Amino acid sequence: MKEALKSVFVAIPTGLSITFRHIFRKKVTLEYPDVRPEFEARYRGLHYLTRYPDGAERCVCCGLCAAACPADAIYMVPGEKATGERYANIYEINELRCIFCGMCEEACPEEAIFLGREFEFSGADRASFIWTKEMLLANYDNVEKKRTVASYKPLIRSDKFQFKMPAGDLH
Ligand code: SF4
Ligand code: SF4
After folding, report:
1. Residue nearest to atom 2 of ligand 2 (CA)
2. Contact by Cβ (8 Å): 86, 63
């Protein structure tokens, strides 16, 4: 009897007081996917590979991003064009291994690899988390290019030949 009275006159009013205290506060939940979350500027999501304004790929397959990656998540195989330029014949990131630390974008001398804002890339099997070069470029072409142009992470080097060695004898 004593316990029942305690429930009615103490526990229930205490519980209701907590409910009423929170009922007029600002909601912290979102009606996702109708309402999209706003992430902090420093948020690091799905990677993308960038291009020069003429559409050429920036990545020269130097391997620095893979060397810097603490999770061993980046795999690449270089190729060479008829002009002698290097490019990534294969470039893959295993997004399951990735810890989204951002070391790859810090290491890249070509401003070719970045972590973007995309967070919706779930999959039903492991293979669907291997993001190939084509997929990473498409993420730039279709999504991240518009974002980088609009606000943050502007590409510093837009001129493909800015760092070309000067002609003539250097000695
Ligand atoms: S964000 Fe970090 S863990 Fe992920 S691929 Fe880049 S360097 Fe590796
Ligand atoms: S993304 Fe950058 S660091 Fe990685 S291989 Fe390409 S050019 Fe080198």
Report:
1. 108
2. no
Reference 51, options 150, 128, 158; nearest CA is 158
Quick check: 88 and 78 in contact, CB under 8 A? yes
Checking if the pLDDT of 105 tops 90, the result is: yes
Structural domains of the chain sorted by starting position, each given as residue range(s) with its CATH number in brackets: 47-151 (3.30.70.3270)
In this structure, which ligand is nearest to the CA of 93? 1
Q: Is the CB of 101 under 6 A from ligand 2?
A: no
The two tokens of residue 62 are: 């130097």
Tens-place pLDDT, residues 44-85 = 999 999 999 899 999 999 999 999 999 999 999 999 999 999
Give per-residue pLDDT as tens, 81-104: 999 999 999 999 999 999 999 999
Supply the DSSP string of 85-140, one letter for each residue: -EEEEEEEEETTT-----HHHHH-TTS-EEE-S------SSGGGGEEEHHHHHHHI
